[in-house]
Amino acid sequence: MDRTQQIKEAHPWLSYDEVVKVLLYHHQGSMWVQNLQRDKLERSMEAFTKLVKSKSIKALKPFVEYVLDVYYNGVDEYGNQIEESSREEPFERRWDKARAILLKSK
User: Fold this and answer.
1) What's the gap between Cα 94 and its chain centre?
2) What residue spans define the domains of the chain?
3) What would the pLDDT profile of 16-75 be if each residue is shown by its tens digit?
4) How many CB atoms lie within 10 A of CB 54?
5) φ, ψ (nearest 5 deg) of residue 22
6) Which residues 6+ apart lie within 8 Å of 30 measured at CB?
7) In degrees, to the nearest 5, what angle opens at C-alpha 24 toward C-alphas 7 and 73?
């Protein structure tokens, strides 16, 4: 069973689109912030999947909301994509903040 399906089964309240975005969040940060490659990246993705699956709805919801509303919210008032360099908060800070939300939730 793939990671998307595992998380979806553990949290059926999430849409497949939301699950993919949560997994993509971790993959991007693992590659770009932590500079993980191949085996370490694979292990990191497995550990992240287990962590997400282990969280209750109450614990996971603030993380998912942050990832969807802040981490990915790169559009202006007209729905146009905002360039990363024009964003108020840098990618690394958004990634770290989402990680902190996830790790501190019980």
Assistant:
1) 10
2) 3-104
3) 999 999 999 999 899 988 999 989 999 999 999 999 999 999 999 999 999 988 887 766
4) 10
5) -65, -45
6) 36, 41, 44, 45, 48
7) 110
